[in-house]
Amino acid sequence: MSQKYRKTELILRYFHGSKRYFLCAVAASFVTTALNALTPQIFRFSIDEVLGKNRYPYLSEHLWILALAIVAVAVLSGIFMFVTRACTARAGEDFAKNMRDDLFSHVQRLPMGWHDKNQTGDIIQRCTSDVEVIRNFVVTQLLEVFRTAFLVGISFTIMVSMNPKLAFVVLLFVPVIVLYSAVFYRLIARRFTDADEAEGELSTVVQENATGVRVVRAFGREQFEMDRFQEKNEAFARLWIRLGTLSGLYWGVGDLITGLQVAAVVVLGAIETVHGNMTVGEFVAFASYNTVLVWPVRGLGRILSDMSKAGVSFARVDYIIRGEEEPCDGAGQPAPSGTDIVFSHVSFAYDQGKKVLDDVSFTIPQGKTFGILGGTGSGKSTIVQLLTRLYELEDGEISIGGTDIRKLSLSWLRRNVGLVLQEPFLYSRTIRENIAVSSPDASMEEIRRAAKTACV
To answer: Are residues 282 and 410 in the same domain?
Structure first.
């Protein structure tokens, strides 16, 4: 599946439950745009018909009516703008929540091998910052694309009806804006990718130091870690400065083109008015429509450049989503009748060609204590991790009560095999909740007994 269709699939997937809010925001935005397009026509009517030709004496004597009409249009526009903002906020937060929930749930089911290959800080950054970039693009900027397209259509139609020649001049600037935006799109995409990855590396350094602060202080490694952080931070800042410089150049070019467009409309419009090809009211209205068009069209160019950032974030988030989850086989397999643990010709390697375990066989009878001695990296922890299927077995067989553990459900296996890690980890909860993390329904008596056994 191409990246384009994959992004569309992801957008529709996480818009579940919030599509109606997004469509409501689009509709309200269209109404706001139409009302804003009505204001210059009121000015044109006032200048040409009421004040210029005096066709409506009553209105010329009661100009407050026209002023009231402008205020009424502004009030209605404000109401529909509020509806747009409210629906956008709801759609955006629902979209981001759906994506965050799915990512978190998916990460919980990814195998340990996947986590070993990816830094924790980078995973956090993908699930937070990148999700926010996608949310902002899909809900805010995509809505702005629809609104701008509608605004350009309705404004240009009115401008053509007033003066086709001058409207053509305005139209000539649109492809110029799109062209230079496309050029900057490619440049910004590359630099944002580098900056985003640098942010992930910086997050990893912070996460590792916050988690291992006791180790850092115990071994007097504060200065080393500060130097390491400063190196990553300087690289991160340098990349974002380069990106900011490129963005500044983009906006500078945009200001130049916008200034040329406004100057062309004012000069040529004045010439057309002097020659009688358009009225003063039409000239004022035309200039208003041109002013209204300038910033949304420039904004469309900005959105095109920001699409590069969103595209990078989509790819980074999709990398997690495409990760293959742990197999959930053996759900229907009955629990083994015994608990003898048998390793039969077990071999395993974290990296291809570097075996940690090579043709290991032994039996642990039910009710017996079994000790495994060995140096660092000899595979002691690997044996336990294979027993709980934190890593999938490559060669050989491990059985409990005569049943291959690959035929047992993961939930049963991990619920019945206790594991004490070399490096304890405490959640940001109470001591009671940490002790009962694997048995949330445990009674207080059971928790006290477990704490006493563990000498806590």
So the answer is: no
